[in-house]
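Page 47, continued from p. 46.
Same chain as before, 124 aa.
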Amino acid sequence: MPDDPEYELQIRAAHTQSTFRSVNEHIRDFNERFGADSGHYVIACECADDDCALMLEVPAYVYRAIRENPRRFLVATGHVLDEVERVVERDGDYEVVEKFAKAGEYAEAAASGGRPPDHPLADR
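Result:
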């Protein structure tokens, strides 16, 4: 495991965001049933702050499009962690961010059900 604070920050942020993404995938069925009339989903903010409890309302088509890229997450406006992600889209109450460097690699691995073997959370 690399002893690099920047590396650990990237991995921890990606881990937290991947966890929120997983929560949102679990409530997707609920959103499909109840969001059919409004065309919107209610999801948990997928930011890197594991204490964040904000809920976002996003168009269903935006949510589905974001899920096509494992490096992209939906976060509340202002919840961007510049050290590990960049904003690729803004829309009022939410922003779409894309992970880069090790955080992006972790997000891709997490989306496919795995973790890079050398990251700080490998044994958790």
